[in-house]
Design brief:
The chain has 228 residues and is α/β, with parallel strands linked by helices. The chain is 50% helix and 12% strand.
Length: 228
C-alpha cells in the first residue's frame, strides 16, 4: 500500500502561467517521478499560479487550501519540485517550516535538495519568533475547519467529522498484534503500544512516537479496540 502525498506547485510570474508554458508541466513531472521512486501516491494537487515565493504560505490561495486539507487530519506528506517552490525568502521559509512541523507534516523536494537551511543563531532566533505566529495560524485553521464541519452538520442533520488519518495495513497489523499480546494478564496501554511500534520502526511523519489517540484510531480501524 503506497503512502498518500500531496503535490504542491508554484509559479511566481504570470508569464509562466498558461497551457503553453512549461513550468507547471515540469514541476508535475518531477513530483510524479519522485512519488514513484519513493513509493508515494499523489492524492491531491495544489497550485499557486503567479504567486511570489516571498509570500507567506498561509497567504497563498493554493497553499492555504492545502493547509486546510492537512489540518483536517488528512495527508502528512507534501512533495515539491525544489526548495524555491516552497519559499524564496528566509522569513517565508522559517514561518512555513515551523507551521508545517507543528502540524506533523513532512515536505520532500523531488530534486533531492534539503528544504531548509542549516540553523545558525539568527535563524534560531527567527524560528522562535515564527513559532508564536505559527501556533496562532494553526489554531485559526482548526477553528475554520470546525466551523465548516458545524455548518455541514446542521445542513445534513448529522455530525460531520474530519478526515480520518490513513495507516498502512502493516502498521494496523502490528498495532493489533501488540494490543492482543497480554503482559501478565494485562493489555499494553496505548502509550506502551506506541513505544513498541517505534522500536519496530513505525513512527509518525515527524519521526516521533505516535500519540495515544493515533494508536486508538489504528486499533479502532483494525476492529479490536475495547475501551477500558
Amino acid at each position: 500500500m503506497k503512502t498518500p502525498a500531496i503535490a504542491y506547485l508554484r509559479t511566481s510570474s504570470a508569464t509562466n502561467v498558461g497551457a503553453d508554458k512549461t513550468s507547471g508541466v515540469r514541476q508535475r513531472e518531477a513530483i510524479a517521478a519522485c512519488a514513484r521512486q519513493r513509493g508515494y501516491e499523489i492524492v491531491a494537487e495544489y497550485y499557486d499560479e503567479a504567486v511570489s515565493g516571498a509570500e507567506l504560505i498561509d497567504n497563498r490561495p493554493g497553499f492555504k487550501a492545502l493547509l486546510e486539507h492537512i489540518a483536517g487530519n488528512g495527508v502528512r506528506t507534501i512533495i515539491i519540485e525544489d526548495p524555491s517552490r516552497f519559499a524564496r525568502s528566509v522569513h517565508a521559509s522559517i514561518f512555513g517550516e515551523v507551521l508545517l512541523k507543528g502540524l506533523g507534516v513532512e515536505v520532500i523536494c523531488a530534486n533531492g535538495e534539503p528544504l531548509f537551511e542549516e540553523e545558525d543563531d539568527m535563524r534560531r532566533a527567527m524560528t522562535q519568533i515564527g513559532m508564536v505566529f505559527a501556533e496562532l495560524e494553526k489554531r485559526k485553521l482548526v477553528k475554520r475547519l470546525k466551523a465548516g464541519r458545524d455548518l455541514r452538520s446542521q445542513a445534513l442533520g448529522r455530525r460531520v467529522e474530519g478526515k480520518a488519518r490513513q495507516y498502512s495495513d502493516d502498521l494496523l497489523t502490528q498495532a493489533r498484534t501488540l494490543y492482543k499480546a497480554n503482559r501478565k494478564g494485562q493489555r499494553r496501554t496505548l502509550r506502551e503500544i506506541a513505544a513498541e511500534l517505534a522500536k519496530l520502526g513505525y513512527t509518525a511523519t515527524n519521526g516521533t512516537e505516535y500519540n495515544p489517540n493515533s494508536v486508538r484510531q489504528m486499533l479502532e480501524r483494525a476492529g479490536c479496540y475495547k475501551p477500558a
